[in-house]
Amino acid sequence: MVPDPDDILTRALLAHARSLEPTDDEVASVLDRARPASRRSGASRPGSGRLRTVATGLAALLLVATGLWSVPSTRAALEDAGASVGGAFSGWLGGDAADAPGRPLRSDESAPAEPTPTYLYDRQSAREPRVIAEAGRYKLYSYIGPSGGLNFLLGGGVGLGFENIAELGKAPLHVLGPGAVQHADAEGHVPLFGIVAKEVKTVELTYSSGLPLRVEGIESGFVLLVEPSREPQEVLALDAQAEVVGRESVDQDDWSHYLEFRSPDTPAP
Amino acid sequence: MEPNFQPMAPRSAATEVRRLRGGDTDAAEALARRATRLALRTAAALLESREEASDIAQDVAVDALRSLGKLRDPDAFDAWVHKITVRHTMRRLKHRRRARKTETPLTLLAEAAQPAVPQEADPDALIAARQALASALAGLPARQRLALAFRYVHDLSDAEIAAALGCREGTVHALLSRGRRTLRRDPQLVEIAIELKGG
């Protein structure tokens, strides 16, 4: 194979960076800064002889951090109602239209995979219908029911109702489920619907192997186009700083059954 | 009988993470060094001065160590450091002012046992070369620069770069192509590259 001249040029130009090594002082400084403030030495650039001391302090910190991680990761979020899924919908349910999630349902709304149910256009049964999220050929709808409860519609088939915000729980992530889909669609996808707290900006779906599915710019809800053949494992919710603030396992679901049938709209091989 | 000494293989990052979680304090230093090294090399490929690259590298390493408890897969340590590096570097590139003249050009620093350039190279010419490179890189969008650094400094695959940058593999391919093409159009850089290769 003939080497690409651009490849050779760029490699040569950046060669100086390939062999750089941090100095002992730089490493010591990192270790010192990574320790809790109360245990720092006070020197901004400690000498290399202090590496062992600061490493010991850091190890103690990390052991504590690891211990915290072993408890449910959403505990902090559960204790913070402001960062909960309910917070994303409470303003809207309270009558604040400006705080409504998603966008209003259009009169000519169409959903190729599953037709939009006509009752969403009946103001007696569905007040203020909205599209919370969409991906590919699927949409997540929400509306206020006759009794004032919060309702979700996963695609066109499955509906979920919550009498009040408290029923949503205080977690920042709530996976609603895959809807009425019985098998993967023509593209091999199954939609997975969910809702999130306002602070969540990115959702990531991990698989048993390979790269995760990552969707950025999330607002209040999501529709993930899942590849069931890759064994989905977990949905992660990340905030604007890319910190994981919530997670929900989806590996207990039997994704394999979606692969047993061919979608009716799958082209013949 | 002669004792059979086997060279000790360097431990993987995953091993170090597990050792640290098991209470082995030596692992903290090893991970600090590894994270600093990874970030330093990335940052040095993008910036004019070693001081600035070192600042970013240390910030990245501190972030990585402080939040190590959140790393679920110890095998993903390097990829995780690269992601943090992207965040810090993008922020720096967005807000940075021109490099201070008092900073040390990369060429004046001892870099490694394996020199990246021929020993007989003229130091003044090397400084000029690095400045020309820095100037050319500065003209590239930040994500192109990062993609080039991940590929040509760390030898990451398209998939690994995509994971670090949070984009699709196809986007990585486009970023690399555009970046290489822009550098190739700079006649001064082409000349420098030929000299660095000893040709």
Please sum up the structure shown.
The complex is a heterodimer of chains A (269) and B (199). Chain A is an alpha+beta fold and 269 residues long. Helix content of chain A is 21%, strand content 26%.
Largest sheet of chain A: 5 strands, antiparallel
The quaternary organization reads as heterodimer
> How many strands appear in the DSSP assignment of chain A?
12
Residue-averaged pLDDT of chain A: 76
CATH class annotation of the largest domain in chain B: Mainly Alpha
How many helical stretches of chain B? 9
Keywords:
heterodimer, A: 4-stranded antiparallel β-sheet, 12 strands, about 25% strand, B: about 200 residues, Rna Polymerase Sigma Factor, Chain: A, Arc Repressor Mutant, subunit A, 9 helices, about 65% helix
Q: Topology of this structure?
A:
The complex is a heterodimer of chains A (269) and B (199).
Chain A: H1 5-13, H2 15-18, H3 24-34, H4 51-69, H5 75-78, H6 85-93, E1 103-104, E2 127-135, E3 138-144, E4 150-154, E5 158-162, E6 173-177, E7 190-196, E8 202-207, E9 213-216, E10 221-226, E11 232-238, E12 244-249
Antiparallel strand pairs in A: 1-2, 2-3, 3-4, 4-5, 6-7, 7-10, 8-9, 8-11, 11-12
Helix pairs in contact in A: 3-4
Chain B: H1 13-21, H2 26-46, H3 50-66, H4 77-95, H5 123-138, H6 142-152, H7 158-165, H8 169-184, H9 187-196
Helix pairs in contact in B: 1-2, 2-3, 2-4, 2-6, 3-4, 4-6, 4-7, 6-8, 7-8
